[in-house]
């Protein structure tokens, strides 16, 4: 799996996941349960991961819709 996006903005995460699901690209949100450790204040970023084979299509989908993709991950 490759990291596609890392952010602590829940709206960006929801938008990215909706875009990917609309394109039929499976994604996995990591670090969701970090809120237990941080007290739900949102300081730890969450990551959106996709399969290696889907990375370039997923990255293009997000960048075409104005979401900056983490380069090099």
From TrEMBL:
This is DUF2007 domain-containing protein. Residues 1-64 form the DUF2007 domain. It comes from the Bacteria. It comes from Roseovarius indicus. Signal peptide: none annotated. InterPro entries: DUF2007, N-reg_PII-like_a/b. Pfam families: DUF2007.
